[in-house]
Amino acid sequence: MLRYKFVASVIPLVVVGYFARDQIAPSVQPCIATADSAVQLAEFNWQAQRRVSFTTQPADATVRVRIVDSPESADFTVVDDARTLEDGGCSGTGPAQLIGIDDTPERTGTVIYLSHDGDANYRIYVRSRTFSVRDAAALLVGAHAGRPQPLARAL
To answer: Which of 19-28, 54-63, 119-128 has the lowest mean pLDDT?
Structure first.
């Protein structure tokens, strides 16, 4: 009888521990390596050294990023089959520059407009389990410190 009570009291603790592990252990955020350092999305916005935001209005954007359908036509390509972010990323590149994504464009100097057509400062191709298109655009623009390339002609 004592064994059953022990098992009955341990099972809830194991279940709680399983679900709490994601909250206790820090999660790894999307990251890209650059020539001399790394750029990583900040887990919390207050940690970010640079901030970007997104808009749905092209006139409000300071940087335009076009989402393309093939890696050959992209300036920046993210393709991975990694199961977790630990399988790839920025290991060994030193401390990463943290980029935050802000919900309020007025608070950031860099406002990104994502589109599938038209002129753009950057063209990206993303097929990833760990990166969203917004993540890739934020990292690319953050790596260039918000100083976009001149607008590229639409392909």
So the answer is: 19-28
Residue spans of alpha helices (H) in the chain: 2-24, 133-143
CB contact at 8 A, 154 and 122: no
Hey, is 82 helix, strand or coil?
coil
CB 68 within 8 A of CB 74: yes
User: Looking at residue 29, what is its pLDDT?
Assistant: 72
Candidate ranges 21-25, 95-99, 139-143; pick with highest mean pLDDT:
139-143
Contact 99, 54 (CB under 8 A): no
- d(CA 111, CA 148) in angstroms, rounded, equals 11
What six digits make up the tokens of 71?
């890696």
CA–CA distance, 17 with 24 (Å, rounded to integer): 10
**Would you list the domain boundaries of the chain?**
28-143
